[in-house]
Structure formats: structure tokens, C-alpha cells
Amino acid sequence: xxxxxxxxxxxxxxxxxxxxxxxxxxxxxxxxxxxxxxxxxxxxxxxxxxxxxxxxxxxxxxxxxxxxxxxxxxxxxxxxxxxxxxxxxxxxxxxxxxxxxxxxxxxxxxxxxxxxxxxxxxxxxxxxxxxxxxxxxxxxxxxxxxxxxxxxxxxxxxxxxxxxxxxxxxxxxxxxxxxxxxxxxxxxxxxxxxxxxxxxxxxxxxxxxxxxxxxxxxxxxxxxxxxxxxxxxxxxxxxxxxxxx
Length: 245
Fold this sequence. Notes:
Its EC number is 3.4.13.21. By secondary structure, the chain is of the alpha/beta class. The protein has a single domain (2-242), classed as 3-Layer(aba) Sandwich (Rossmann fold), CATH 3.40.50. It is 27% helix and 19% strand. The chain is built from 7 helices and 11 strands. The chain has a 7-stranded mixed beta sheet with strand order 3-2-4-5-1-8-9, sandwiched between helices. The protein has a 4-stranded mixed beta sheet with strand order 6-7-10-11.
């Protein structure tokens, strides 16, 4: 396995999507030799899927990588396109739409098989990171569709909250992000939640999990009946892979 799970697509000062994790992406491409990448753009709602493919292609080009990005939405046979791909990219957007579309098209099994059995590298951000969890119950997105589906790819055995923000907005009297996650834990006591702020990512390589950041921000781990714990880049978080939801 070689999975990059980015909190978000862009941060201030980065011209290209995923630019803050450029070094990790270059290393992954060189390590795996992946050249033919397929982008899953189903989470994209407010712009075209074709534009998102072009955006990601620009990132690879800017990094000097000899890679070709195609959109899974353009494939006559999405399952065959996944089998033929050297790498899988999953764009951010609305997690509910993304996850339901993957289930509707019968793509959950083929993606898991490619990543877990064939070792096809995977890069996701935001919604693309949400779906690596056992379920998408810790997404920040609204369920803007009916018939929403919760189980997801289950590539990692814990829940992730991308775009994690430790803040209380002045004048806002609703729950903070921390309070929402604590509510999740009250109902799901045995399912820890990893909050990854903007500009950070998780990397799972051959079963070894690590945390990285482009801005010095720490990961925040939430567990039931315990105070949250912060982890900085390079600290050992491998114990999370031993968890069973």
C-alpha cells in the first residue's frame, strides 16, 4: 500500500492543487513508477469534472512528473479504467455524493482491490481522504443527496476529520468542531477520530502510518472518555493501525 491522505487541496501560497504535499507526491511517483493516473472527480459539485482533471494534470506537470491524468467519468467502463491505471487520485468536494456514486457504480470493491491487493498508489484530499475511513461519518459535508451511504473504502481502521479547525467563531453559538467530534464519540465509543488541519497529510506505506505537515500544525487525536492528544510530524502514530472499529 502507498496511500497519501491530504486534509485539503490548497493552502495559501500554493498555486497548484496538492502543492503543499509536492515532495511526498514526487517521492510516491518515483517510488511506485506510476505514470497513468485516473482521477475520481465525483465529489466535485461547483465546477466541471473535466476542469478538475486539468487542474490535477497541471500539478503533475509543474512538478516535472511524466504522468498522464484521465478522468474516471470519461471512461466507458470505469472498472476497466481502474484496473488499467497505475495510480488513483480522488478529488475533494462533497463526500456524500462521492461515496454514494462509488457504491452506485460498483467501484468500492475494485478500488480496494487495486490499492490493497495490487499496490496501486492512492492520493486523496478532503472528500478523497474521508472515504479512506471505514465510514464517512466524520465528514464536514452536508448530505445534499437522498439515499446517502455511510460505509466507505475502509483503507484505514480509524475515522479522519479533514480540514480540522480548532476554533470557536465569534458570534457563532453552534457546536464547535471539537464538540461535534465529541458527540460522535459519545455514540461511537470505540472509534477514534484523527483531526488533520489544513496543509497536513497522513501517509500509509506498506502498513506503516506517518503524519506530515507543511506548516507545523499538529494532528489531534480524539478518543472516547479521554482528553484529545496532539501529535507532531515524525511522532509515532502506528498504534492507530492496530485499532479495530
